[in-house]
Amino acid sequence: MKLKIAVLPGDGIGPEITKQAVKVLKAVAERFDHDFQFEEAIVGAAAIDATGDPLPPETLELCAGADAVLFGAIGHPKYDNDPNAKVRPEQGLLNLRKGLGLFANIRPVKAYTKLLDHSPLRPERIEGADLVIYRELTGGIYFGEKSTSEDGKSATDVCTYSVEEIERLTHLAFKAAQKRRKRVTLVDKANVLETSRLWRKTVADISSEYTDVSLDFLFVDNAAMQMILDPKQFDVILTENMFGDILSDEASVIGGSIGLLASASVGEKSALFEPIHGSYPQATGKGIANPVASILSAAMLLEHFNLHKEAKAVRDAVEESLHMNVCTQDLNKNNYYSTEKVGDFLEGYIIEAG
Amino acid sequence: MKLKIAVLPGDGIGPEITKQAVKVLKAVAERFDHDFQFEEAIVGAAAIDATGDPLPPETLELCAGADAVLFGAIGHPKYDNDPNAKVRPEQGLLNLRKGLGLFANIRPVKAYTKLLDHSPLRPERIEGADLVIYRELTGGIYFGEKSTSEDGKSATDVCTYSVEEIERLTHLAFKAAQKRRKRVTLVDKANVLETSRLWRKTVADISSEYTDVSLDFLFVDNAAMQMILDPKQFDVILTENMFGDILSDEASVIGGSIGLLASASVGEKSALFEPIHGSYPQATGKGIANPVASILSAAMLLEHFNLHKEAKAVRDAVEESLHMNVCTQDLNKNNYYSTEKVGDFLEGYIIEAG
Ligand SMILES: [Mg+2]
Ligand SMILES: [Mg+2]
Questions:
Q1: Which among B122, B154, B242 has the least Cβ separation from residue A120?
Q2: In this model, does residue B293 exceed pLDDT 90?
Q3: Is B184 in a helix, a strand, or coil?
């Protein structure tokens, strides 16, 4: 397969980890005989420094013309601590999501056997947990009308959803479930919210097109509880924007390491892949950043193009690295490997296993 | 002190557990020489059966005229499973909260040393955790305008808050913090929501009246994470209705037993105290229901009237019962005590310790 991949390393540790992900993708291309072309562009603080714009038009253009975007991380304290800053690095990602029409945020969470002891949860509760959250990314209360009364004494946020917005995400979630354990859980608050009732009706209607996938419903407050009590019960969680924001951050603690968590943001024509962690400026250039979240984001990219064998090869390599303790210092305090060395190990394993 | 307490046992295990709480309150009255008067009324399924109304006018009248309401639990499968049921037991509680003007929901969460092994979280993460959530109960998106477009293709919920609604809850939370570890955390989503910005401004303004209490802010998605990563960091959490709904249910898993979790709902003139668990119909009359959540709700009642020594006596008795393993079967599988026997132990301990 021929793929044109836009690479946006961004700020902080973004460039170091993205470099390892590209290395891994090149190893995959070599082993499985694909043609992956990479083109880099600036975004975030790096782009503000160079052009004044966190998402320069050329960067958006490159991404729009690419098959996929591999994204590093953005954010720099220089801008966070400046209350007069008119543009912020984070706008680069928000504008990019908007410019590419990305409406689905996909967050897998997995408890790796080797890392059970890192989790705040007891091992027996999480061993085998393997879920993915499909979160709507462009609608709901975060993007609704906002207002404050003239006297400043009251404020309002409006939450709206259309059937269309719900449908397009729902199809993605059900298709994902078909390739997994065939179970979708819709998280809503349908006993109280009108938008939730529209979600429930729309998702139930669509579910009849996927007879091999079961559907159940959970109120968001109960879901927040169940996520900790028994995360193994979940396969695909489907939910609206704000509930997905809360639940995906809550779920991120299950695996015990934020350095392993990948994500995808998907639209009709474009898809962007990025670790959930930030730019971690204080670690920049020290060779201590964990590249695995970026590398697992690359695995999601492969999966997105139905390169399942290829994605599996990357995941197998990661499992092996954890098993062999070839890890950065966040996971292996005493005998740790550098960012680069972890990337080298994964690259080597992918090529040799072929 | 003279207190008139309305007792609403409700359905399922409600009567059994409430009976133990009344027994404990009588023991407190005896030891500390108070005059507590109890008057019972029906609510929920029991009230529908008797009168057709889950909150008969006489019940509301009794509660409105009482100093406090001790509430059991409501709900019966007979009504849950009947799609044609026009009135539901749960409406009894909603109408009561409305009728009494209860605007603050207070949910303490504590990790008892003796029960650390029951928690899904690792003991070292939760040992010493002791927090309380102040949740706004009458406003926000749950009670805002709801609408569906004429073609049924989109739905809307409106979230509104007024300064007044925020102020009255905030004062309660800061006063509670003054008697605790003097720290309030406002949970909001002020980077996105206009209502959250009003919360932040209003709470920050009020905090200047409480110079001995520190205030910090946390976005709700991060709070959902921190609640699991490090619940010990929290003292008083202050938040709006829906965030409070989600976070208080999430936090309820920390202690490892829902059978110990009490709550209060407070208004200008009235206050209601109830366990967070439901009516558990399948356990009714078997003598296996854990009365401690109801008894700790009674301790919150005492605290509400500044009877701190008295509340402490109840809590000490509960700690002792856990220590001695005088527990119902949910906490002590092999050698358990009945609902009644646990109540007797606590009653005896309170009187004898005097
Ligand atoms: Mg978030
Ligand atoms: Mg709830």
A1: B122
A2: yes
A3: strand
Of the candidates B125, B221, B250, the beta carbon closest to that of A225 is on: B250
Does the residue A342 lie in any domain? yes
- Amino acid at position A273, single letter: F
Reply yes or no on whether A142 is catalytic: yes
Whether A134 is in a domain gets the answer yes
- The CATH code of the domain that includes B9 is 3.40.718.10
Asked if the Cβ–Cβ distance from B162 to A147 is below 8 Å, we say no
Q: What is the C-alpha separation between B59 and B69, in angstroms, rounded?
A: 11
> For residue A257, what is the nearest residue in chain B, using CA coordinates?
B229
Question: What single-letter DSSP state applies at residue A55?
Answer: S
* pLDDT grade for B281, boundaries at 50, 70 and 90: very high
In this predicted structure, the answer to whether residue A91 has a pLDDT above a threshold of 80 is yes
Q: Which of A157, A205, A249, A286 is catalytic?
A: A249
Task: Mark whether A166 and A249 lie in a shared domain.
Answer: yes
Closest CA to B55 of B25, B86, B83, B89: B89
Whether the pLDDT of residue B84 is over 80: the answer is: no
* Residues from chain A contacting residue B252 (CB–CB below 8 Å): 225
Residue B259 Cα to ligand 2 midpoint, Å, equals: 16
Give the end of a domain, one of A226, A259, A292. A259
Asked whether the predicted pLDDT for residue B353 surpasses 90, the reply is no
Last residue of a domain, one of A234, A259, A284: A259
* For testing contact with chain A, the best of B194, B202, B230, B258 (most A CBs within 10 A): B194
3-class DSSP state for residue A143? coil
Are B113 and B137 within one domain?
A: yes
Write out pLDDT tens, residues A126-143: 999 999 999 999 999 999
Residue B213 has pLDDT above 80, yes or no: yes
Q: Do A154 and B147 touch (CB under 8 A)?
A: no
Beta bridge partners of B216: B185
Is the same domain home to A36 and A141? Answer: no
**CB neighbour list of residue A21: distance below 8 Å, 6 or more residues apart:** A70, A291, A294, A295, A297, A298
Is A130 a known active-site residue? Answer: no
Work out how many domains chain B is built from and give that number: 2
Does residue B230 lie in a domain region?
A: yes
pLDDT in the model for residue B240: 98
**Considering the domain boundaries, does residue B97 fall inside one?**
yes
